[in-house]
Amino acid sequence: MIANPKRQGLTPQEYFEWEALQEYKHEYVDGEVFEVTGGTIPHAAVTLNLAFSLKLHLRGGPCRVFSSDAKVGVSEQGPFLYPDVVVTCDERDRNAARAIHFPTLVIEVLSPTTEAYDRGTKFRRYRRIETLSEYVLVDAERVGVDCFRRNPVGIWELHPYTEEDHEIRFASLDLRVSMAQVYEEVRFES
Predict the structure, then answer these.
(1) Which Pfam families does the record cross-reference, listed alphabetically (predicted)?
(2) Which residues contact 160 (CB under 8 A, 6 or more apart)?
(3) Alpha-carbon span 174 to 153, nearest angstrom
(4) By the number of CB atoms within 10 A of the CB, which of 7, 29, 107, 123 ranks highest?
(5) How far apart are the C-alpha atoms of 78 and 101, rounded to whole Å?
(6) Strands 26-29 and 32-35
(7) Average pLDDT along the chain, 190 residues, taken 10 residues at a time
(8) In the prediction, which pLDDT does 3 show?
């Protein structure tokens, strides 16, 4: 997300109408819209690998997987944010057309320009979603994954994974994905 708002004072409905006419994606926060910048090739590869692994596991069940073109609405009034991957298992999202409102899992693939935002402000916004049980941050410049899970009393706990770990556990989906799958065909810059 860039720092300067592109438009100000929009209602959610005006945002949806305006954004549908734009060439680039924009997140909506408190009446302002912010352009979402593109990522690197490793970022795109990691995103695709994760979405593909999740889709294979969830196929035929009640959950649905979406990649970076699907918005997540924290509430009906916003903010509306673009995660890299989102999974919803909630029947209330079955016919969603504009945004997912009841996600189970949100994944952000980190880049140097968005890492602080994804770890801080964006995570604070996502934590307001009652159905969200896992928030996963995946490094696109080196092997590393931080998985935040909401425990039974509502506290978010960090479960870090490094290249020494062979797999990542997505507890909310009863799924383990190998680190090799996450980083398949990813070439890091030297």
Answers:
(1) Uma2
(2) 144, 145, 146, 147
(3) 20
(4) 107
(5) 10
(6) antiparallel
(7) 61 94 93 89 96 97 95 96 98 96 98 93 97 97 97 97 95 96 90
(8) 45
Pairing of strands 80-81, 85-88: unpaired
Domains of the chain, with CATH numbers?
Answer: 1-37 (no CATH), 39-182 (3.90.1570.10)
Q: How far apart are CA 124 and CA 64, in angstroms?
A: 24
- What string of H, E and C letters represents the secondary structure of the chain? CCCCCCECCCCHHHHHHHHCCCCCCEEEECCEEEECCCCCHHHHHHHHHHHHHHHHHHCCCCCEEEECCCCEECCCCCCEECCCEEEECCHHHCCCCCCECCEEEEEEEECCCCHHHHHCHHHHHHCCCCCCCEEEEEECCCCCEEEEEECCCCCEEEEEECCCCCEEEEHHHCEEEEHHHHCCCCCCCC
- The Cα diameter of the chain in Å comes to 48
Tokens of 9: 């004072």
* Residue 148 burial class via C-beta count within 10 angstroms: exposed 0-12, middle 13-18, buried 19 and up: buried
